[in-house]
Amino acid sequence: MNYKLSISVLLLATVSTASAQHLATSHASTAPARPAGPTMATIALHPVGKPVVRVNGTVLTDRDLVREEYMIFPYARQHNGLPVAMESDIRNGAMKMMVFEELVYQEAKRRKMAVSPDKMRRAEQDFKKQFSSQQQYNDLLNTEFHGSTALLNAKIERSLLIDQMMKLEISDRSVVSLAEARAYYDKHPDKFRISESYAIQTISVIPPDNATPAQQKEAKKKADAALQQAKATKSYEEFGLLAEKISEDDYRVMMGDHKAMDINKLPPPVLQVLKNMKPNEVSGLIELDNHAYTIVRLNSHIPAGTQSFSAVKDSLREQMKKEKTEALRHALDAQLRKNAKVEEL
How far is CA 307 from CA 262, 281, 304, in A? Predict the structure, then answer.
């Protein structure tokens, strides 16, 4: 499970009151109600504070759960739901994350860690700056904290204490030096050999299985309209936003981005077109099996070869840091859970 190290106070609110309400940490909770669609499972837009887990006597709620789900899958805000295929894993991961945060907070309190008045004052000011109006701030305060700034400030302090503990136990200990990265590079040359690949985005139109001639004709009509819109895009972002709006493949929730794909994993019709494209170009319609159509944007072509240390050192250090961070996080989680009482409700 990937874990976002910084538990910033800014996670307590976002640009809208509704989002701020999900993200605000609470100690009173529920498992979100979620009507399911054909490809997305809708998560609760307004968690009501129903208890979902008790950690050493402290109750965490559906507000905590939804906040963590959004951290794992931020696209849920745009699509109003979690992908059905990922829903269970995301929810389980969110539960583990919020329990871990609570255990970290309790450990910080046990160690008598404190937040300085100056840091607390800056955090309170930064929190309020996120709201577009005093009314929006008051709405959150009344809805989530019964109008009490003391309760809100306690949540802000909680986030800051978690940050301090994570910095002390994980981020300060997960730094990877250039020498460490070089030693790893020299020891594992095979890891830096790459196959030829293409970094692409797609917009796809997919008719039903065993489509009738009428359905095939409708798919072609939709694909022609999609192509016209795709050709009008001028950037990665524009193409990606269009993919989110009209594409029918699973990559639409990722702005149509497939990242770098090995040429051996690309459908032959797509590969044939890509060979004649330049970066940032948008293809014409490419017909695939079952009368499906796709439109490809080429972001980059990566030739086969061995990456130099200078080319990979920054990403390698970052990857090694992530692995070190995850190992330290797991160790801390195991240590804190050893004598903890965690009860799902």
Answer: 16, 25, 9
